[in-house]
Design brief:
The protein is α+β, with helices and mostly antiparallel strands. It has one domain (about 5-120): Nuclear Transport Factor 2, Chain: A, CATH 3.10.450.50. About 30% of the residues lie in helices and about 45% in strands. A six-stranded mixed beta sheet has the order 2-1-6-5-4-3, covered by helices on one side. The longest helix has 14 residues, at about 5-15.
Length: about 120
């Protein structure tokens, strides 16, 4: 897959909740700087982390608004709409940066306001 196909698959699989296939988009030695989870190294570490994702959210969608691809890099402006199991809504605008090597995500970072995620983090 080229960079655009990988990025499109990232959002398609996330929105389906297919976290195992979503994790397969990442390189074995991937690095992620995630706004809420922090620094995550390794695909299998990420896979284990994502197994707990359904327990955090009753619903979750991440809708791309703008996608910019240049070679092996991409930036995506998107919007997350989610809800906790207690029914608390979460709405947040996000920017994700991707580096794709050999058809797999080798590095990703995301940037967003953390305030909307307080119900999930238990800080509200």
């Amino acid at each position: 897959m080229d960079t655009r196909q990988v990025v499109n698959s990232y959002y398609e699989l996330a929105n389906k909740g297919d976290w195992d296939a979503w994790t397969d988009l990442f390189a074995e030695r991937q690095t992620m700087d995630e706004q809420l989870a922090g620094h995550v190294e390794g695909r299998e570490t990420l896979r284990a982390m994502m197994q707990g994702f359904p327990a955090m959210y009753a619903s979750f969608t991440n809708t791309p608004r703008h996608i910019v691809v240049e070679g092996e890099q991409a930036a995506v402006v998107s919007h997350i709409s989610a809800a906790t199991h207690a029914g608390e809504p979460i709405e947040a605008d996000v920017v994700n940066y991707f580096r794709v090597e050999g058809g797999l995500i080798s590095y990703m970072s995301n940037h967003h306001d953390t305030v909307p995620f307080r119900p999930v983090l238990g800080t509200d």
